[in-house]
Design goal:
The chain is α+β, with helices and mostly antiparallel strands. The chain is about 35% helix and about 30% strand. Helix 1 crosses helix 3 and helix 2 packs antiparallel against helix 3. The termini are far apart.
Length: about 210
């Protein structure tokens, strides 16, 4: 029996997750309203999108833009592959791109459906595995936002990286104080963002 799991993040609207192990499933052509972002753990994943055939292996990241028709299957005819996917609504990724740039840049468009970025792929895999566990909530939430911002900045159509005039750096004092007083507790990132009076992306950027 194929080991798989599909679930939603409790504290993040618009983010769904899928884990599939040893999958032999062949997906018919379809699309998603948001972004499909994933990593292969074992084997190879082949799919067609934007008139081209793509193959993703461990160390690479799959990024399918919203409403882009694509299919999916193991690269080997009789093979299987294991993979993890994040399905993220467009508004969340757009906010990540804005946070990476320090200004409004709009919705990023990823020219390549498979990008080679081994360090970022490793972080994404670490994040996805961690999202199956209930502990370390603040660390997981922070890593999620940082990965989305880095993905948009590095591969999302030339999103600039300009932190010179970011006021978030000056406004995180209330969040820092709360962390000092409640360091032994599981603290939601949303709580710190509310204390600082900013969204979660700007808060993470202020700490970085």
């Amino acid at each position: 029996m194929q080991a798989s799991r599909y679930w939603r993040m409790d504290d993040f609207d618009g983010i769904e997750l899928l884990r599939a192990s040893g999958s032999r499933h062949r997906y018919a052509r379809h699309s998603h309203e948001g972004y499909a972002i994933g990593v292969v753990e074992a084997g190879a994943h082949a799919f067609t999108a934007r008139g081209a055939t793509w193959t993703a292996v461990p160390g690479q990241i799959v990024v399918v833009n919203p409403d882009a028709a694509h299919d999916g299957h193991p690269a080997a005819r009789d093979g299987s592959y294991s993979y993890r996917m994040l399905y993220v609504d467009a508004d969340t990724v757009a906010t990540a791109a804005d946070a990476a740039a320090g200004r409004r840049v709009g919705l990023p468009s990823f020219a390549a459906a498979v990008v080679t970025d081994a360090p970022l792929a490793a972080r994404l895999l670490q994040l996805h595995r961690g999202l199956e566990l209930p502990e370390a909530r603040l660390e997981r939430d922070t890593l999620l936002l940082a990965i989305l911002a880095d993905l948009a900045r590095r591969h999302g159509g030339g999103v600039p990286d300009d932190h010179r005039h970011d006021p978030a750096r000056r406004d995180i004092a209330p969040a820092l104080e709360y962390l000092r007083e409640h360091f032994a507790e599981e603290i939601p990132l949303a709580t710190l963002a509310e204390l600082a009076g900013m969204d979660r992306f700007r808060l993470v950027r202020g700490f970085r």
